[in-house]
Design goal:
Blueprint lengths: L2 E4 L9 H16 L3 E6 L11 H11 L9 E2 L4 H13 L3 E4 L3 H4 L21 E4 L5 E6 L3 E6 H4 L3 E4 L7 H12 L3 E5 L3 H14 L5 E5 L1 E2 L21 H11 L11 H11 L10 E2 L6
Parallel strand pairs: 1-2, 2-3, 9-10, 11-12
Antiparallel strand pairs: 4-5, 5-8, 6-7
Length: 289
């Protein structure tokens, strides 16, 4: 059975780019007769904003994007992250790294400085995974064949930060596996990171989900909309306008008559075809209706 998900961070309210990802993943799940789960990526508590969860839930509800089951949270998966680390240790794939960002600044890839550190040092240390030379690849349902050489692109990457917070490549494969996710639909800014996730899943012997990366929404200056850059929060008072905008950006042409949120989503589910989603990394055309 198809199981999709939407996994926003708790660093702030959703912006239009976030809604674009939510709508795409929701439509793909519902068009397949599948489940659509909601998970908050809340493991980095230092970056969590007050009331972010409540605001996100209100945005999803006002746009008719209702999830299935209990809301998931990364903070409930701490033990699972460490289980994955221990599994990587059993495969002799990880080491402790005390290198600072200053030491590594300007280097094209991690130089392997700490590769011999297999026991935890007394000072704070990140945990990195050894990346072998060679290309990794996967088929993206929108972007086509994706491949890359992790060793050249950045080298041995961090799976657990010095603060004992799991890095995104590790946390997301653990989270998705724990929830039984079969399909991931998200922004194309995560395509390169997906190669690291696939590497981890394969060395751990885990089944990887199918991936589909939609174009990210850029501002007029070409910079991606981001919570980190305080992108304007979604206006929940105009859900029909927001939905029409996201549908146009996903390659759909909804009826001119706005109707209701429920009727627009019903039309979109019936007419969803992921092959119509633009095969490019970004879009900048926000439709004003």
């Amino acid at each position: 059975m198809y199981v999709g998900r939407f996994a926003p961070t708790t660093s702030g309210p959703l912006h239009l780019g976030s809604l674009l990802a939510a709508v795409a993943s929701f439509l793909d799940a519902r068009a397949h007769g599948g489940r659509w789960l909601l998970r908050f990526d809340d493991i980095d508590t230092a970056r969590s904003a007050a009331n972010a969860e409540e605001v996100t839930l209100e945005t999803l509800r006002s746009h008719g994007l209702y999830w299935d089951g209990v809301i998931g949270r990364q903070t409930n998966h701490r033990d699972l992250y460490w289980q994955a680390i221990r599994a990587l240790q059993d495969h002799q794939l990880v080491f402790y790294c005390t290198c600072s960002r200053k030491q590594l600044k300007g280097l094209p890839a991690y130089p392997g400085t700490c590769r011999g550190n297999t026991t935890r040092p007394p000072e704070p240390a990140a945990i990195r995974v050894r990346v072998p030379a060679g290309k990794w690849h996967f088929h993206d349902r929108i972007q086509g064949e994706i491949q890359g050489d992790l060793a050249q692109a950045g080298g041995d990457f961090i799976v657990m930060r010095k603060e004992n917070i799991p890095a995104y490549p590790l946390s997301v494969i653990v989270d998705d596996r724990a929830s039984g996710i079969t399909d991931v639909v998200r922004g194309s800014d995560l395509i390169e990171n997906t190669l690291a996730q696939i590497f981890l899943a394969r060395v751990l012997g885990w089944k990887e989900p199918r991936f589909a990366h939609i174009p990210v929404l850029n501002q007029r200056d070409g910079i991606k909309l981001s919570k980190r850059d305080s992108a304007t929060a979604i206006d929940n008072s105009r859900p029909l306008i927001n939905l029409h905008s996201t549908l146009h950006m996903l390659g759909m042409a909804p009826p001119v008559a706005r109707g209701t949120v429920a009727s627009v989503l019903a039309w979109a589910i019936k007419n969803w075809n992921i092959a119509r989603v633009p095969m490019r990394r970004s879009v900048a055309d926000v439709i004003s209706l």
